[in-house]
Amino acid sequence: MRMLQLKCPSCGGVLEVEDSLDKFYCKYCGTKIILAEQSDQLIKAKVDMAKMSHEERMYTLQIQEERRKERESTLVTFCVIIFCCILIYLLYSCSVRME
Known about the structure:
The protein is α+β, with helices and mostly antiparallel strands. It is about 60% helix and about 15% strand. It is built from one helix and four strands; from the N terminus they run E-E-E-E-H. The model has no long low-confidence stretch (mean pLDDT about 85).
């Protein structure tokens, strides 16, 4: 990793900055320094991070959708079972009355 040697615009202190950083603080006076130019490595890293964040959000949404479908399927199954129980009860009640 390449190191840049810059001077602080406030105090003139010599700063050693990693190529991958685009903002940092002067270790002598605490001034916040933002580099105008970003390295290709930094830009690629930011793009990769944004892509990973997007993929994570999409995966989370996919999991939520699968859970919703599972709950819906469970509810439908439960309703069918209740309907069948009621139907069996009614048929049994009718057969007992006919005797």
